[in-house]
Amino acid sequence: MLRRLIRWTLIALAAAAAWRFLASRLSRVAPGLPLDELNPYLAPGPGSWTPPFPDQQGTYEEYDIVVPAGRVPALPQSAPCPGALVIYASWAELVASCDGYDGPGSGLNPVAATASAIAHATAARIACPDGCTRRVEEIWRGWACDNRPLTAYAAVEVRLTCDASA
Q1: pLDDT grade, residue 16 (50/70/90)?
Q2: Alpha-carbon distance 142 to 118, whole Å?
Q3: Strand 65-67 and strand 132-147: pairing?
Q4: In this structure, how many other beta carbons lie within 10 angstroms of the beta carbon of residue 115?
Q5: How many of the other CB atoms lie within 10 Å of CB of 65?
Q6: What is the pLDDT of residues 91-105, one digit of tens each?
């Protein structure tokens, strides 16, 4: 009886350790996210770049910070004052159908909402210097759906502006 109890205790401990190891590895990968770093929907190219999204709203601007597929890079501690930083954030998900993820009226789809949340959360981590007024606004978003495999993409740009207070 004691041997059986010890055996099951060791099995439970080994299973828990394996689960912790697996969970630590999987926590670095977003579920269902295509991890192609060279995908032009997720990470814009260097220099002057034209967004590949067939559907867009707002005015695209050159970016200062890129958050490809939710992977936040090292961020500056503060924005210039007076000045602004443009943050480009993207997200993608495998979807069952492109319905609601492409076309001119689909800019508020869940993938675009996630990209917007990432952009705003990134902006929230950057402070404005003391004596400056902070403002964050969305200036552009683009979205698309692709059939290789069925994937919805979205990117959002927000501008973090720090103005000298009056």
Answers
A1: low
A2: 14
A3: unpaired
A4: 28
A5: 21
A6: 999 999 999 998 888
